[in-house]
């Protein structure tokens, strides 16, 4: 009976197996074939010796590596990275990119711009705070990130590289996680140090890179948070801080293979590792945070390119781009310079002397830039944008196009939203700290708006076009 066609032969058209295969369809066949191919490759890799170097089991021998130490660094990043992501997204929103392409350095963002909102002007130091936190935290976390990568580096060289289709997908998420975090930190630090070596717009690369990284980060946290909590509970932080070198022992073997099978004798305690990483972060905090905090700490901001001595006098404060660097010469802003104001009615054209003869208003506001630096509050004086909008026949203007005399380029023209126009502290500034603007600070006229990114406070203004729509 076992040799009969019904028992051993291929299933017939009416058999249950045939019907089940028909129901599964071609997609199931593709997945089954892919799974078989992965298993075949895994079996071959398992029977082949690992390549020399870091793939060898005995290559990584540090007795300090283990789930607990990795989890300590992971906990710090679990707190810091989401805060960095949120402040980074707020930085993008502060440019009001939905007003138009002039403000949007990342066209085609699609659903990734779901959260955008009208950036407020209150409190006036909002952008200074969010961007200062974003940049400072990004620099301070570098030692923690490097320590975390060091603690898990054996995982990047496991052999075979994939044991199953599910393991291969997990490895792919790990690749996106590690590659994404390195990309984001490197491009961010290069930007704040003014190393413009990007193959495209920094804003576009950093924006999309952030979303790829945070997606991989969320997947990784979901997969590992249980193990992290268990590892943190496995030993006491205070006990580790009191453990001397003579009593430093490897952690128990773990399923992730972080603990080496043949550990070397310890040359440093875990307390020493934590102190080295914490000390590095503290040092970076001291040489970075002053550019945002100001006061006496400003002199310690050694890593801030724009924190060099800006000079003395009323115009002696930080400058992002000089007039010469963007191609603005004294000829552009000489006696022939005029300000044009367009709106609902006929255009208005003014000389600087005529603007100075109008009622002047003052506002004490800082300048804060995407690189994380900011000035102290400066006393600006000039004309309220709200008054100029009324002059243009649009007292309830929804937006204004601000155009500079500088040659075409990024931020030579920007759009400001209606709430920014109506804030009484939003000025077309003509003077600062009781003196005329210097050429580098935007003479003969510049925009200054509360909580506005520095590059959107356009300098060397030549035309304002008020619009009724946002």
From TrEMBL:
It comes from the Bacteria. Residues 1-10 have a biased composition (Low complexity). It holds the Pfam family Oxidored_molyb. Residues 334-468 form the Oxidoreductase molybdopterin-binding domain. Gene3D superfamilies: Oxidoreductase, molybdopterin-binding domain (3.90.420.10). Keywords: Membrane, Transmembrane, Transmembrane helix. The chain crosses the membrane at residues 68-90, 110-127, 133-153, 174-196, 208-226, 273-297. InterPro entries: Mopterin_OxRdtase_euk, OxRdtase_Mopterin-bd_dom, OxRdtase_Mopterin-bd_sf. Residues 1-26 are annotated as: Disordered. This is Molybdopterin-dependent oxidoreductase.
């Amino acid at each position: 009976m076992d040799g009969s066609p019904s028992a051993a032969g291929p299933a017939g058209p009416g058999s249950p197996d045939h019907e089940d295969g028909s129901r599964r369809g071609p997609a199931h066949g593709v997945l089954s074939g892919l799974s078989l191919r992965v298993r075949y490759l895994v079996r071959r890799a398992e029977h082949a010796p690992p390549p020399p170097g870091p793939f060898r089991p005995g290559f990584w021998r540090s007795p300090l590596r283990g789930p607990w130490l990795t989890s300590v660094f992971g906990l710090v990043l679990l707190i810091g990275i989401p805060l960095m992501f949120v402040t980074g997204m707020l930085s993008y929103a502060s440019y009001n990119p939905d007003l138009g392409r002039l403000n949007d350095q990342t066209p085609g963002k699609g659903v990734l711009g779901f959260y955008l909102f009208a950036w407020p002007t209150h409190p006036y130091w909002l952008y200074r705070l969010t961007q200062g936190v974003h940049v400072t935290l990004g620099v301070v976390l570098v030692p923690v990130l490097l320590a975390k990568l060091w603690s898990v580096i054996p995982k990047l060289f496991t052999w075979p590289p994939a044991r199953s289709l599910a393991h291969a997908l997990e490895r792919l998420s790990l690749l996106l996680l590690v590659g994404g975090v390195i990309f984001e930190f490197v491009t961010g630090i290069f930007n704040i140090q003014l190393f413009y070596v990007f193959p495209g717009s920094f804003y576009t690369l950093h924006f999309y890179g952030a979303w790829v990284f945070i997606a991989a980060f969320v997947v990784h946290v979901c997969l590992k948070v249980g193990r992290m909590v268990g590892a943190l509970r496995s030993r006491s932080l205070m006990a580790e801080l009191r453990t001397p070198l003579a009593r430093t022992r490897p952690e128990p073997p773990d399923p992730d293979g972080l603990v080496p099978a043949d550990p070397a004798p310890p040359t440093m305690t875990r307390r020493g590792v934590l102190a080295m990483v914490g000390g590095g972060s503290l040092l970076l905090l001291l040489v970075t945070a002053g550019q945002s905090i100001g006061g006496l700490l400003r002199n310690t901001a050694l890593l801030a390119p724009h924190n060099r001595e800006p000079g003395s006098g009323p115009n002696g404060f930080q400058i992002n781009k000089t007039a010469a660097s963007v191609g603005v010469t004294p000829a552009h802003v000489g006696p022939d310079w005029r300000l044009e104001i367009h709106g609902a009615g006929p255009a208005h054209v003014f000389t600087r002397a005529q603007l100075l003869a109008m009622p002047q208003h003052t506002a004490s506001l800082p300048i804060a830039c995407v690189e994380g630096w900011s000035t102290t509050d400066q006393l600006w004086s000039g004309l309220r944008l709200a008054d100029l909008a009324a002059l243009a026949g649009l007292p309830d203007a929804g937006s204004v196009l601000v155009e500079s005399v500088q040659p075409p380029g990024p931020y030579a023209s920007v759009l400001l939203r209606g709430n920014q126009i109506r804030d009484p502290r939003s000025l077309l500034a003509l003077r600062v700290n009781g003196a005329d603007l210097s050429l580098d600070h935007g003479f003969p006229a510049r925009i200054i708006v509360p909580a506005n990114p520095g590059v959107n406070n356009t300098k060397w203004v030549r035309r304002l076009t008020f619009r009724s729509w946002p």
